[in-house]
Amino acid sequence: MSDAPDRAAPGLVQLGWLEWVALPRLGIPLLRAKVDTGAKTSSLHAEELQIIGEAGQHVARFIVRTRKKVYQCECPVKDERHVKSSSGHEELRVVIETTCVLDGRRWPIELTLTDRTAMRYPMLLGRRAMEGRFVVDPGQSHLGGKPKLKRKPRS
């Protein structure tokens, strides 16, 4: 055990290795994200990905499947990038930009779209998305709490 002082930067919120996030512009109110400081970019599970040209701009249409729900998503394509996985495999991925909500904070986030079926969590939160906002305690989880879901009024 170290007696070193806590060096967390002032103003940065502490996250655990697993957090709840919302992606409201994609219509996703609640999603588990693995926090990964070793990953430069963030990624989102996407099935049935289609790139459609609309009014001179490309749009990504895809499905995000969680354990409990399936979301039909659509978002303008920002870029395409080669991403190297932790296993060393390189893949060309579509990049979108959307809004991320975590611990009551909202900010724009870039997400690469990929099939994460073999992964336990549908989203990976990489260090670019956390930079200047958060510090990570890998021994904790869900420090940001669970976003409040807006309930539809009963008819």
UniProtKB/TrEMBL annotation:
Domain of life: Bacteria
Chain spans, region Disordered: 136-155
Protein name: Retropepsin-like aspartic endopeptidase domain-containing protein
Domain Retropepsin-like aspartic endopeptidase per the UniProt entry, residue ranges: 15-143
Organism: Botrimarina colliarenosi
Ranges of compositional bias, category Basic residues: 145-155
Coiled coil regions, renumbered to chain: none
Gene3D superfamilies: Acid Proteases
Pfam families per the UniProt record, alphabetical: Zn_protease (PF05618)
